[in-house]
Amino acid sequence: MEPTGIGAIRARLRAAEAAAGRAAGAVTLIAVSKVQPEARVRAVLAAGQRVFGENRVQEAQGRWEPLRAEGAAVELHLIGPLQTNKARAAAGLFDAIHTVDRERLAEALARLAQERGASPGVFVQVNTGREPQKAGCDPEGADALVARVRALGLPLRGLMCIPPEGEDPVPHFRLLRGMAERNGLDGLSMGMSGDFEAAVAEGATHVRVGSAIFGARGG
Ligand SMILES: *Cc1c(COP(=O)(O)O)cnc(C)c1O
């Protein structure tokens, strides 16, 4: 087993950046706090972590609105699927949404951006493994969705993927990187507890690490 916990994950991330010839801090570590008990989240906050990921809007509101009210200056990233009817709540809470995977959702976010005069950063999620049960646009549809998000004026940061479980993730990371390059996008949200070092080697700019920081969910 590789070492875990926030300190160990930071060290492993620095080492992965160095091994890939990338600058220290080139990759943003998103600590995925979904379903974790509050005590664990507070401990990671106390260790200085400021960027967190959640996969459900309501759960994230319940956890982070009180912590922000206490003064926690955190950056929050939505990494789970977003229903259009929750776009308003998501836009009010999150600094970035990694799961924009269809035009209707992009259009809803664009309307909210107009109304609010601000928008979370946007990543287009691509279902690189074409898994029927998984969110994300098809690889063939990614260029068109990227163009649509840009035309709507949303702050597009990059692409995101979740490779199929039990498969070598590297071909998926490479596919995503190629799509980002041909679309002139810098941001790559890819890599989780089991494969973030491989993702950094393939150009990830944002890794989403949960259990390796906090311990097993529900554990
Ligand atoms: C839960 C989750 C993660 C974190 O998974 P771990 O394996 O615990 O690191 C990353 N990305 C997404 C989209 C998730 O839902």
Automatic annotation (TrEMBL):
Protein keywords: Pyridoxal phosphate
Domain Alanine racemase N-terminal: 8-217
InterPro entries given in the database record: Ala_racemase_N, PLP-binding_barrel, PyrdxlP_homeostasis
Coiled coil (residue ranges): none
Gene3D superfamilies: Alanine racemase
Signal peptide: none
Residue spans crossing the bilayer: none
List of residues that carry N6-(pyridoxal phosphate)lysine: K34
Pfam families (UniProt xref): Ala_racemase_N
Family to which this protein belongs: Belongs to the pyridoxal phosphate-binding protein YggS/PROSC family.
Alphabetized NCBIfam families for the sequence: YggS family pyridoxal phosphate-dependent enzyme
Biological role stated in the UniProt entry: Pyridoxal 5'-phosphate (PLP)-binding protein, which is involved in PLP homeostasis.
Cited HAMAP family: PLP_homeostasis (MF_02087)
Name the UniProt record assigns to this protein: Pyridoxal phosphate homeostasis protein
